[in-house]
Design a protein that fits this description.
The chain has one domain. Helix content is 59%, strand content 7%. With 85 residues, the chain is mainly α. A two-stranded antiparallel sheet has the order 1-2. The protein starts with 5 loop residues before the first strand and ends with a helix. β1 and β2 form a beta hairpin.
Length: 85
């Protein structure tokens, strides 16, 4: 079995990490995306972490598409950019 990539769980130093095969690990990582490029890298990391689990057809992808999480995170990017002006 391959190593399971981990994501940071919050911003507290020394905090426990969640595997990218868990819902919480995926949500934590994806919410930490600061821009579209990082979002895409994080998507690839989650996809790669889950491909072996579900024969390449992992449920995380459909969940990400239907969850509205991208819209939520993108709204945060827009708010951050507006605040920086």
């Amino acid at each position: 079995m391959p190593d399971i990539p981990m994501s940071p769980a919050g911003t507290t130093a020394g905090a426990a990490v969640e595997p990218l095969t868990s819902r919480d690990g995926v949500l934590t990582l994806m919410r930490s995306s600061r821009d579209v490029a990082e979002w895409n890298r994080n998507c690839a990391a989650v996809r790669d972490a889950n491909a072996w689990t579900h024969g390449g057809k992992s449920a995380w992808y459909a969940s990400m598409l239907t969850s509205g999480l991208f819209a939520e995170v993108a709204a945060d990017w827009a708010a951050t950019q507006e605040a920086e002006r």
